[in-house]
Amino acid sequence: MENSNDKIKKYNISEKDLYTLGIIEAKKSVAGFFEKEKLKTKSMGVLKPYNIKFIDLGTLLDEIKKQEYHTNQNLIDKYGAIDLVSTKSSLGLRYSIPIIAGVAVLFYFIFMNGPSACDCANLRDDSPMNKEYTPQQLNDGDFLHREADKHVEKAKKCAEIYGNLDDIEKELARTATEMTWIPKLDEAIENAKKECNK
After folding, report:
1. Tens digits of residue pLDDT in 104-159
2. What residues contact residue 166 under an 8 Å CB cut-off, 6+ apart?
3. Cα 71 to the chain's mean position, in Å?
4. Rounded distance between C-alpha atoms, residue 117 and residue 135, angstroms
């Protein structure tokens, strides 16, 4: 198993870049959130030419920080003060694009997929009024309010998917705060039952 120092050698990072990264890592340890984010882009800019694997990135930066290249007097004499303002930044898109894509797909499957036809067909039976709750839940007004809100949101999606709503009715459904205000909800439930029984 290779240690972090081997990773520094593996990627053959230049002495000057190690010194620059040492300065950046030292500044990150005392920076506030926004400044730290700016400094991360500077680190990515310095490392960009080395094609660092994502899995090695954190370990590599930790090792550079531990080595304290920024305090090495030989490097200070050789390179002097490094102007971080002129140091190129990189958003690290090579690393962040797959992560962003993964989050987007996960978001789609969790939030964009509406209720199924059978969920909508059983909407009235699954009402919070028909569920059994513990005494503690019954005494928690916020909990009951959230349960009712979730059910209304589900009903709105059912109406939009199975209610054959026109544009005005869709807008009314989106802004409804009670089930009785959702247009064509009964029609949506009937259509969902037909779809569910196919």
Report:
1. 766 665 555 678 889 899 988 888 888 888 888 888 888 888 999 999 999 999 99
2. none
3. 37
4. 32
Among 135, 188, 196, which Cα is nearest to 157's?
188
**Token representation of residue 83:** 């102007």
Asked if 64 contacts 21 with a C-beta cutoff of 8 angstroms, the reply is: yes
Q: How far, CA to CA in Å, does 56 sit from each of 6, 18, 47, 48, 61?
A: 11, 15, 12, 13, 9
Question: To which residue do tokens 């809100």 refer?
Answer: 149
Give the residue from 2, 48, 51, 59 showing the smallest Cα distance to 25. Answer: 59
Side-chain half-sphere CA neighbours of 156 within 13 A:
16
Nearest to 166 by CA among 154, 178, 191, 184: 184
pTM of the model as a whole? 0.44
| DSSP-based three-state secondary structure for 99 | helix
Q: Can you tell me which residue has the tokens 């959230």?
A: 146
